[in-house]
């Protein structure tokens, strides 16, 4: 009887050992995500936001080039040499830097969000070979995110982009086109009059329009980048459909549907995150 009372008096004991739980957590596979989509669909923007939210490492061509140059690695020194000569960094070198980053201790611990690979360029490896390389990674992707957008909407959006030549800031058409800005301002005012309860929701749009008006004042300083012209955009989208689309569709068809996420590329990247 006394022994039963002693047992009842004992506090609840967690059956899981803290050290074992921590060890299991450290040995567990980190989240790995790949963002796919047509050229200019917003892959890098979305990938960057996901990396911040999930505390993963963003892996993207420009990021790894800058990182290697900054850290003066062997690859970084090769990049510097090429750039000093006015040459572009080869696809082979970029691919090797990306794959090395994927295998780094940092990524092994935190996981990754990969954007821009497989690459549209087949200078070093075909798209199929790049996909096979991804399938054979030690840290295979857990989730594939495909940003879907019609050719027309994508080409219109990209061809409407303008860049400020001093700051390098890129503005969308609704941020610099005076006609669209004025229409946004009028619509915002009309909505506020029709429904005062939505005033707070409309405030952000009004502020966006006001900020955009300051952009229209420096309209003469905005230029269209060569890669953003309608002709070049249509050409890149055409190459994507000819070279990459079929291989990606076959790969996504093999993926477990619960780990394949398709998003509407016409939405703002912030809106995509709440889907």
UniProtKB/TrEMBL annotation:
Residues 193-206 have a biased composition (Acidic residues). GO terms for biological process: nucleobase-containing compound metabolic process. It comes from the Eukaryota. Residues 185-206 are annotated as: Disordered. InterPro entries: Adenylat/UMP-CMP_kin, P-loop_NTPase. It comes from Alectura lathami. PANTHER family: NUCLEOTIDE KINASE. The keyword Manganese does not apply. GO terms for molecular function: ATP binding; nucleobase-containing compound kinase activity. Keywords: Kinase, Nucleotide-binding, Transferase. This is KAD9 kinase.
């Amino acid at each position: 009887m006394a022994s039963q009372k002693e047992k009842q008096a004992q506090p609840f004991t967690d059956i899981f050992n803290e050290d074992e739980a921590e060890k299991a957590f450290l040995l567990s596979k980190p989240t790995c995500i790949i963002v796919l989509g047509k050229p200019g669909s917003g892959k890098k923007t979305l990938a960057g936001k996901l990396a911040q939210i999930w505390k993963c490492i963003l892996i993207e061509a420009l990021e790894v080039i800058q990182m290697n140059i900054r850290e003066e690695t062997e690859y970084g020194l090769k990049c510097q040499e090429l750039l000093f000569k006015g040459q572009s960094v080869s696809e082979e070198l970029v691919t090797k830097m990306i794959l090395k980053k994927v295998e780094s201790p940092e990524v092994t611990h935190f996981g990754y969000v990969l954007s821009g690979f497989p690459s549209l360029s087949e200078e070093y490896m075909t798209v199929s070979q790049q996909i096979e390389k991804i399938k054979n990674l030690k840290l295979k992707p857990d989730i594939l995110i495909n940003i879907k957008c019609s050719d027309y909407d994508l080409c219109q959006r990209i061809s409407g982009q303008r860049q400020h030549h001093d700051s390098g800031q890129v503005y969308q058409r609704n941020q610099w086109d005076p006609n669209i800005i004025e229409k946004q301002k009028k619509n915002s005012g009309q909505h506020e009059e029709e429904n005062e309860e939505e005033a707070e929701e409309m405030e952000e749009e009004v502020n966006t329009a006001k900020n955009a008006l300051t952009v229209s004042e420096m309209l003469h300083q905005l230029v269209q980048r060569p890669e953003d012209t309608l002709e070049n955009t249509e050409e890149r989208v055409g190459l994507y459909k000819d070279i990459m689309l079929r291989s990606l569709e076959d790969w996504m068809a093999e993926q477990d549907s619960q780990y394949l996420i398709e998003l509407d590329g016409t939405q703002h990247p912030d809106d995509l995150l709440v889907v």
